[in-house]
Amino acid sequence: MKHSDVRALAPVMEVFASIQGEGAYVGEPQTFLRLRGCPLRCRWCDTPGSWRVRAADRARVGGRELADRDSAWATPFQAACWIKDAEAGALARTVSVTGGEPLMWPEFLLGLRSMVGERRLHLETAGAHPETLARVLDVFDHVSLDLKPDLDLDAPEEERMVEGEAPTSPTRERAPRTRAEWSAAREACLALVRDRDACGKIVVGGERAPADFAALFDEVERVHPKLLVILQPATPIASVPAPSRALLEAVVDLAAERGLATRVLPQVHRYLRMP
Length: 275
Ligand code: SF4
Fold this sequence. Notes:
The protein has seven helices and 13 strands. By secondary structure, the protein is of the alpha/beta class. It has a single domain, classed as Aldolase class I (TIM Barrel, Alpha-Beta Barrel). Helix 1 crosses helix 2 and helix 4 runs parallel beside helix 5. The protein is globular and about 50 Å long. Bound molecules: iron/sulfur cluster. The site of iron/sulfur cluster (SF4) has 11 residues, from strand 3. Iron/sulfur cluster binds next to strand 3.
């Protein structure tokens, strides 16, 4: 693939060095490459500013202080340069590609591997686009699947994701719309990561009941029972309270009944007051 290929561009929201606060690699110093664009609408989304791509958007890059670049749109080479800028001469870190939904931009992801050299490359995805995940899977050393109970999902809004003129289009794979489509997409993604370094992450909001997670756990048990499942208590926001201890323990028990390995981990970067 030619890296000047316009299809390999992706809209970058921010590039910054920090500590991984979630998932199986929690605590590891990583450099985060956050891409814009997400057709999904998770009720507890903590980055709604990443949903849309606007002409006036600029990538923000840096260490402690982030500075605007001329544009949001970047080639894999440009993104690799920004990753080095964000690390400011420190040792190369694992790069975590997050969003938004990174699977919107498969050509960019495919080009990124050769641009970041020997570093580990991690992917954080909602697991809603299995065909696209299958295309890019070999690029990544670790995949973190955000598994979402149906009640945490609103209808996707892909039609309005990119506003105005854009140099490239997102993946053509449509986001799931119905419960059956969501279940099929999750199961396909779980099957894809069966022999990979991967984890599943499930946010537990305080307004949920234990039974709300049963269908998700059934899917994991059916398709990938060895997957490490991280239960992440929701960081309270206006509409989503933190879960009680009783709820967390009931959800842990529900997973254990199915033989699933779980870890309960809050968003550690929030406690550290890091981005
Ligand atoms: S997939 Fe991520 S960015 Fe998109 S709505 Fe859900 S939490 Fe937010």
